[in-house]
Design goal:
cell membrane; membrane; mainly alpha; UacT-like; 453 residues; two-stranded antiparallel sheet
Length: 453
Amino acid sequence: MAILNRRSASIPKTDVHPVDRVLPLPTLGLFGLQHILVMYASTVTVPVVVAAGLGLPQQDLIYLVAADLMLCGLGTLLQSLGIWNVGVKLPMVIGASYTGIAPMLVIGQGSDIQTMYGAILVAGLFTIAVAPLVSRLMRYFPPVVIGTAIVLIGIQLVPAGGKMIVGSKPDAPDFGSMSFLLLALATASAILICYRFLPLAMRPVSVLLGIVVGVGVAALGGLVDASPLGNGPLVAVPDLMHFGVPRFDLVACLSLVLIQIILIVELAGQVKAAGEVVNKPVPDTDLAKAVRADGVINAVGGGLVQSFMYVTFAQNVGILSITKVFSRFVTAAAGVLLLALSFFPVMGQVVAMVPRPVLGAAAVIMFGTIIVVGIQILAKVDFSQISNLVIVATGLGIGLLPNMISGFYGQVPEQLRPILSSGVAAGLFAAVLLNLLFHHVPERRKKGADTTH
């Protein structure tokens, strides 16, 4: 990585803005590969968690990895290059979102996988539809709302990572075995050691390196199952509607639309941050283009190449700050590489080979960082205002109930369970309503009263 930094300093300067500068092909490939390394651990964790949560067979996991890589590649190309009014034309990458995992699993487990994909499709179409309005809608989703939702997301996801470590069936003979726990401990320790001692430029790949160390330890202990390798064709294209024609349920769609609102707010923050890093401020019209790109990929991810919910990633913005290489053609090169990797099922086979405790340890750390991000957002909230305290307290309380008490909403009408059983959706809905009540409704009444007098 240090070599990359030295090479970036030697790139000749021109009158073209650094974002629009086309670099030599080897340089594009090298820096593009670095972006892939940074995002790869996050990219492969989502298919594993979802496949485990839905009880999908190994072959479906291999498909999900390929489909995920394909959509990550297409989305990254859209954001980097732009087509018509889709894509912001900044050096940004799109990846599968942790935020969508928990509500997706609630729908998939409570209904079926086709209903889950129908809801993702609707959430994507919703994103495209509201793109022109995003800058005006942001005022209704301040830090007090978004911070509450993100804390709930992290809390709801950590158990999913824990189940990958100890197993999901408490009555299984190997549930919580010491070998699983020690393997997870070795993986987590390797990740933390990398974060502590690696040079700054290499720290973004600490999770990936930790997973490699964990696989090595597992191999020494005879815990690696290499049977997935070599099965199936060498080259294959992810098939369309792999899990069947999407089905549509109003409440399921609404729950993912609520989650998609969080992703839109997250996206807006990432795009604005990237614009500041590369010294190219993003106007509202370009923000709408970025939102459309995420919407298109989510719609395709629900309706055609069935996979997950997607968002423009934050961690790769950090790479821009470290390398000072701002060319959007670098991330476009990453998109091409991701797209190419999706045609090789061996990528999914390698992921299927990694022991669950290894990926679970990495997932717990990454999901824990989501809680920290939410806390950081809430730290900006003025809690001297009792209204903000009530919003956060109520949102967290409502959101935690289904996570802490299994079957809390077991007797409510089945149509409402996808929202209520997802603590994230229920907590977000409560926070949004309370924010409107405390911070917007009184203002409107006051204006009406002023007009009357």
